Amino acid sequence: MLRISKRVFYPQMTLSRSLATYNSPTKAVSDRSLTKKEREFLEPMIRVDQAGEVGAYYIYKGQIAVLGSDKKLKPILQEMWDQEKVHLARFDELVAHHRVRPSLLRPLWEVAGYTVGFATATIGKEAAMACTEAVETVIGNHYDDQLRELVAIENHNQDLVDLSKTVAQFRDEELEHHDIAVAHDAQQAPLHAVLKAVIMQGCKSAIWVASRV
Ligand SMILES: [Fe+2]
Ligand SMILES: [Fe+2]
Fold first, then answer.
1. Which CATH architecture has domain 36-210?
2. Whose atoms come closest to the Cα of 143: which ligand?
3. Looking at the predicted structure, is the pLDDT value of residue 150 above 60?
């Protein structure tokens, strides 16, 4: 089975990387309840991340519906999809654990994700990869921004430490997906720059909405 290595840097990589680092706290971690302020900080974060993972899950599902018969591409898409399943399951767990109200627009994220995945895969393999490149750029940067915020607060609380670890791990995996897409000719897609810009803007708008609604 194809394995996605922990850190894959392809020469075509275009994403600038000055990534936030996460070091486990050296002080004792407390399992105290979150303060009201910490909850207000954490809730929209978990809500938008769950919605993003719903979108990602459905994008890969849509791509596999079209490209599942491609022997070379199928295992690559399948491996990335399998990681998205783990991401989504983790945020489902966090939503339940913290009793976060999920995004009310989940059906929209499902349909939008599937449509984008299916449509780009219908254009061709390169367009499907350009879609992945665009989406994972935005999601990777989004997780990186969140990690910076989490690192900036005093997070010797077990829940916040756990969330930081999750966000750091998923950020790395999303950026690996990005690198894989670029290595599989994302930038050869027809109208690559336009396609990438449109999908990135769509993702940014979805993030803005999903953190609120
Ligand atoms: Fe993901
Ligand atoms: Fe991903």
1. Up-down Bundle (1.20)
2. 1
3. yes
Point out the ligand nearest to the CA of residue 117. Answer: 2
Please list, residue by residue across 16-44, b when 16 or more beta carbons sit within 10 angstroms of its beta carbon and e when fewer do: eeebbebeebeeebeeeebeeebeeebbe
Q: Which ligand is nearest to the CA of 52?
A: 1
Whether 22 contacts 151, CB under 8 Å: yes
Q: Which amino acid is located at 76 in the chain?
A: I
Rounded distance from Cα 145 to ligand 1 centre (Å): 15
Question: How far apart are the C-alpha atoms of 131 and 170, rounded to whole Å?
Answer: 18
Is residue 2 scored above 60 in pLDDT? Answer: no
Quote the ligand 2 centre to 10 CA distance (angstroms).
16
Q: Where are the domains of the chain?
A: 36-210
